[in-house]
């Protein structure tokens, strides 16, 4: 964590003049400092640069770092000094390793200035190049100059032997580079590059400087929130501009912004209090929080938000991207409410969403809030489709029960209004009693969420087995029998239909009986789109087939094998143990750009913490509790891809083959993930000779109505005190998957199949049990 402090002799304004608060949006450059840099464009470029550094694993090996420091110190800086005209640097950019060292060095302005003046008698700046095409041209031009000047030193860092003597390296530079190794992790959320977010961050940075300029009684360093920190570091990374701009604040660069290692809780609280006194707003906001180093591991965001350059699934018209935004709500009571203590005790504040998740009702007693300072009431993540949040002030007659409370007033914050608001923040009052400030981040694409639900048996053409279809076909018997599953997205929309072939032939009333197809013909196919309903819930599957899985003879020591239309091959086996240790996978991919691996359980970003008490609701001792780790992870499989940029692997999907639910990044193929999930369930059911995932169900189970408690639409942050009363639907689905995926049927279809009555034309249990649990012995 970085802290800021300013030397008190640079400011002549007393702290008593801060009694009148200012609106953050009213702060002008004459009241703070003139910014000689397009901070929005520069910050966007820096986030992109930090991501490239983070992705380049080779860059962080010690021999490479040492060589990069040598190249920076002996080659790049002398070259740049010679080409600079006065304080104006040439429009060239160095190779990545050198630029990384340069960037880290500039984040210590005092050290960088001393270094430049000692070696070159002037402060050397950085060119303002923000466009990617111009960056590429500047890099190419630098290469040409470099090759002419240093013919014996390659432009790219090719030293990975470790032969460089560590003693000869600039130890101060080595310390700076090492210290900033994981800097990108502070700004890795995808919304950090959004223009509207960066504009808001720039205004908050100016407000931070304004606050410092007016404060003479600051005894300890002030701690920048993450959005302000991004602007501050970006400003520093352009040394000559930063030195010129900061003179208006302090006049002496060495006394302006010393960097310290770790912030204390006291320093954070002092910064928050000073900000509130200056602007009458909470210092923290969505996308602009402060996490102490001691809290990094204990307070983990509940959603995995990664930057995806491309959405592989945009080619499927039936898939709809999912967008998330972070929301922070702060509350403070009006001072006049002090005289109305009895009324305050009977009031409570309720949070709901405008659209989706109608069951969501988060209550807090009004008396729990302060009259003097802003308190964080809720911290959550919402899908953009929720439209906004509503606050209701409710009053109950007495006691501690909110049942039967009467509505006093409501206020609404719509996401679109917040996106147009200064600093992405709005303030509202409820019944002239409670002041509420809500802030958001720009919506950014989040992982896809899909689940498969049972549906009716279909024939070879994709039509459901029904008298309705029979009549439409002029009573010509329907040929073939396929188990069907409908794929629903996060909003309950149908996007794919999965079919598993089981039987062939016609089934006439009292006549012929379809036969079981051969094992190699029991294919799985995925069709893109939704059912075409012709009468109620009876319809036809979409025509376009976008993926298939074909069973094949497994190699020795494997029990099942599938060949996918994507060019991948899946091998499975199940040992004698009933635990997850007996389950084995092997994924062979035809792709040349990456290799994929399947890991049993929830791994990497999906891994569960050992201390579940921080995340789960307290469960009664009388309820069944899972004690074995293998049992907890049963059904979960993590898909990890290895590329040149990610040699250690990157999890791109989490599957639960038992519940047929998946979460995957936009860069992962939905059809491939679904094929994996269905093939696993199909094979494991056969190997265990047990309907472990409800494959024999041949009716659509009663689902929760769309908008009732949509999974993934609202997720509470673990730091929110409301977590103790939250339902599984306010947590990531894989924290309590069984509860989230359970249907509204009276019986849980995972543990007990509902008592459905199937028509003779669909085929009895014997047909489907033989089609699922018995392999054709042609292989053996």
TrEMBL record:
Residues 1-21 are annotated as: Disordered. Residues 487-664 form the GRPD C-terminal domain. This is Uncharacterized protein LOC107411832 isoform X1. It comes from Ziziphus jujuba.
